[in-house]
Amino acid sequence: MLHPKQLTQAKHAADEASTPGRPHVIRNRVFASIAATVVALTSATTAGAAISTTDDRSESERLASDIVAEAAEAEYAWEEVPTLETILPVKVQGTTEVDKTEAAEIPEEEEPEPVEEPAQEDSSGPSVSIASDCSEYSGNKAIGCTMTLDAGWDLGEFSCLESLWDRESGWNETAANPSSGAYGIPQSLPGDKMASHGSDWRTNPATQIAWGLDYIEGRYGSPCGAWSHSESNGWY
């Protein structure tokens, strides 16, 4: 009876006898696959031929052979791609550069002309403290009486002045003659002549009276002289 070890050796020997040359076939397949891979990098056709001539190919080997064969037959589309031109603009000789559009000029804003405001009236006219001799008068007549005495005339002269300006304006500091343009208590023509005695000539009776007394003195010498002329001519 054979020992178990002897039985194993006998089985190996029988296997080798039934499949003579099998190790050599396996080695041949490995080398053929490696050779096919290396050759495929340089020539797809040669690699396909190498794999196709291998005896007893496996499924993987057949798949590799098909891939190599298809690669050999494929058209190289990238060879037909035209050369890429530069994307930068090329200046053609003989042409001139296009002038850059100048920025539009922004019109300067015109400064509005200053509006002249009417002169502010102030109380630059004379201030009057009513004299005791003029206590019988009131309002603008009391001011006129006091200023007449201050100018060096007596109450008789003021009596002439009272009559004169009663006729001209009724002693109203805002009286205006629509036909001639005369204005104020003394009916200055034009009214702004009285501005020489104060910027408040439109509303201050003392400013108007001061101007009127200077006018009368310069032209008629006294209020009674002006009254006499008015009686004879209807104006002074």
Structural summary, described in words:
There is one protein chain. This protein is an all-alpha fold. Among the domains are: 18-77, no CATH class; 132-233, no CATH class. 47% of the residues lie in helices and 0% in strands. It is built from eight helices and no strands. The protein has helices at 4-18, 22-40, 44-52, 59-73, 139-150, 155-168, 205-220, 223-233. Helix 5 crosses helix 6 and helix 7 (205-220) crosses helix 8. It starts with a helix and ends with a helix.
Task: Annotate the secondary structure layout.
Blueprint: H1 4-18, H2 22-40, H3 44-52, H4 59-73, H5 139-150, H6 155-168, H7 205-220, H8 223-233
Helix pairs in contact: 2-3, 3-4, 5-6, 5-7, 6-8, 7-8
Pick out the low-confidence regions: 117-122
> Distance between termini?
182 Å
Helical run tally: 8
Largest sheet: none
Question: Which descriptors apply to this entry?
Answer:
mainly alpha; rod-shaped
Short note summarizing the structure:
With 236 residues, this protein is mostly helical. The chain has helices at residues 4-18, 22-40, 44-52, 59-73, 139-150, 155-168, 205-220, 223-233.
